[in-house]
Design a protein that fits this description.
Layout: H1 2-5, H2 7-26, H3 28-33, H4 42-58, H5 83-95, H6 99-124, H7 129-141, H8 145-151, H9 155-174, H10 184-193, H11 197-217, H12 221-238, H13 240-248, H14 281-296, H15 302-318, H16 324-330, H17 334-337, H18 345-363, H19 368-404, E1 417-418, H20 422-429, H21 435-440, E2 441-442, H22 457-466, E3 473-476, E4 482-488, E5 492-495, E6 504-508, E7 511-512, E8 524-527, E9 530-538, H23 542-573
Antiparallel strand pairs: 1-2, 3-4, 4-9, 5-8, 6-7, 6-9
Length: 574
């Protein structure tokens, strides 16, 4: 569209100012009272990123074994859960002086990524800029975005990436296969793989939907398949470290995240608020109008119809209208992996709001009756945006009041250990010593812990590691080995506060140890009278080292190419 033609020069600045303004409004209380919000996922991810921060700071690198975070337990997290994103956040901690500045910085970065992505999606489907800007606040106010502000849930970054991927997927049904890029979608999906695995799987299904439509829509099916395969090849090349990390742990018995009933974590049609769990009544009204208009206008705009069908299917899958109780009964493993159908909202909201904006753009070209409908929808959107702003304001205010309360500070979580000195926690969140907070507030998430039989990994991890790690002196050696020292007054059995995987090598006082507790793979060792030393090192397979370097080199080549392309494009305009 002609109005989008000047996007790089004019609309880019407008977009930046609008997203910045929205971010400032959403973080007003945090800026004013220097508040840091700590919820259930905060400690988990802060431990992940602190470990990488320390690796860069000390030069003692260990790709698999966690030597600095998670009570220096040696557990594996980052290698299989968003490794690239973890390293980026570790570098970001060098810029941010405290967890307070880190939290605010990442909120703004998240909103910029999500906001520009949504506007890019709107541009792709030819939405008028005015309607893209009007629906943008609703996108940034809903879904998982508030959960990053309130509790650092990583699904929010998945939601921020969804518009970018959906926009590329739409190319399958709007462009002739000969015009499709051989690598752009592959790069974007590789970015998702470096951040969040579940988002990758969900987006894969959405792309499959678009690819199937494109396969039947165009005659150049061989070219379409060729483009898809080359993008898959690029994705695999840039994601070898993620795939390889999962394969390395494949022969270990691993504790899964806490399971929840799928049928109890579905999207409800209730209230005037919309969030992870609520699909507002007003949204239902807009959805009904959207469906009616889509069928009425199907010959004029098939893209609107195809996106609406996808959105409706996702809403059905996320709600009780889909038989999730059947999956609870017959596929219980989904309770630990997929966990909540409400996670589909990361796909629903960008699709839903963008097709509403598209319909408004189409209606604006119609006659008087259609224009009347357009103004009714715009009024609903404006009122709904005000309601959502107020909801977010109340939520921020309540969280800030909890933070300022000397007896609370931490808003919500289920920690294994939390300091009774809550003021010390507040001070630690503003301290340059980022490790201090991680010692005052400790959660016991079981994700990826090694087990040798079914057990309550949360309880065992808390009892044998979190409660005991302070009784040992920890030191990280230059080769990534985690060394524990302790003094014993006699020869006795000791349980070390570390976990051991099949690829781990544990040497205690010069001898290899192979005895472990039942349940969580925690070592039982024989200590001698005096000083005892235990060295834990994860033995990384040579094949993984090779594919890790292939991944790194591939990303360097991609960044180099993108920089070259940008510079060349800039010169053409000069």
């Amino acid at each position: 569209m002609k109005k989008w033609a000047s996007f790089p020069k004019k609309n880019m600045l407008v977009s930046f100012l609008l997203i910045t303004l929205l971010s400032l409004i959403l973080t007003y209380y945090q800026f004013r009272y220097k508040a840091v919000f700590v919820y259930n996922d905060t400690a988990f991810h802060y431990n992940r990123y602190f470990d990488i921060f320390q690796q860069f700071k000390t030069g003692n690198f260990s790709y698999f074994q966690t030597n600095y975070g998670f009570c220096q337990s040696g557990r594996i997290i980052n290698a299989v859960y968003g490794p690239g994103f973890a390293y980026l956040n570790g570098l970001l901690l060098f810029i941010c002086k405290s967890w307070f500045s880190y939290q605010l910085t990442t909120i703004f970065l998240l909103n910029y990524l999500a906001g520009y992505g949504y506007l890019f999606l709107c541009k792709k489907i030819k939405v008028k800029p005015i309607f893209a800007y009007l629906t943008l606040p609703l996108f940034l106010l809903g879904g998982y975005f508030p959960t990053w502000i309130q509790g650092n849930t990583l699904m929010s970054w998945g939601q921020a990436l969804c518009p970018w991927i959906i926009a590329e997927g739409i190319n399958f049904i709007t462009k002739d296969p000969t015009e499709l890029s051989s690598f752009k979608l592959g790069i974007w999906m590789a970015v998702v793989a470096q951040i969040h695995n579940l988002t990758l799987l969900m987006l894969g299904l959405v792309l499959l939907y678009f690819a199937i439509i494109g396969f039947f829509k165009f005659k150049n099916r061989f070219v379409l398949l060729k483009r898809i395969c080359t993008n898959i090849g690029v994705f695999l090349l840039l994601s070898l470290n993620v795939i390889g990390g999962i394969l390395v742990l494949f022969n270990n018995k691993i504790a899964m995240p806490v399971g929840v009933a799928l049928n109890e974590h579905v999207l409800h049609f209730s209230s005037f608020d919309y969030s992870i769990t609520n699909f507002s009544y007003l949204f239902v009204v807009l959805l009904v109008l959207q469906i009616l208009f889509t069928f009425y206008n199907i010959k004029e705009n098939k893209l609107n119809f195809e996106m609406t069908i996808l959105c409706v299917l996702l809403i059905l899958f996320a709600s009780r209208l889909f038989p999730w109780s059947f999956f609870d009964k017959h596929f219980p493993n989904l309770q630990n992996s997929f966990q909540a159908p409400t996670r589909l909202v990361i796909l629903i909201y960008p699709l839903f709001l963008s097709i509403i904006a598209l319909s408004l753009s189409i209606l604006s070209k119609k006659g008087r009756l259609e224009n009347g409908i357009k103004y009714v929808i715009l009024l609903v959107i404006c009122l709904f945006t005000l309601v959502q702003f107020n909801q977010r304001r109340i939520s921020q205010r309540n969280s800030t009041l909890n933070y300022l309360n000397d007896k609370t500070v931490v808003n919500y979580s289920f920690p294994r250990y939390i300091s009774s000195d809550r003021i010390a926690i507040r001070e630690a969140l503003h301290s340059e010593n980022k490790y201090k907070f991680l010692t005052l507030f400790i959660n016991s998430e079981p994700d990826y812990l090694p087990i040798n039989e079914q057990t309550n990994a949360i309880s065992s991890y808390g009892k044998y590691i979190i409660d005991q790690y302070k009784h040992f002196n920890h030191k990280v050696l230059s080769d990534g080995t985690l060394q524990l020292r302790w003094k014993a007054n006699k020869n006795e059995k000791v349980i070390l506060p570390i976990v051991v995987y099949k690829q781990s090598m544990l040497v205690v006082n010069g001898k290899r140890n192979v005895k472990y507790l039942k349940g969580l793979n925690v070592p039982i060792v024989y200590s001698k009278n005096g000083i005892n030393v235990a060295n834990l090192k994860f033995i990384t397979p040579l094949w993984f080292v090779i594919i890790l370097w292939i991944t790194i080199i591939s990303w360097i080549v991609v960044f180099g190419y993108l920089i070259y392309k940008s510079v060349r494009k800039c010169r053409l305009f000069c």
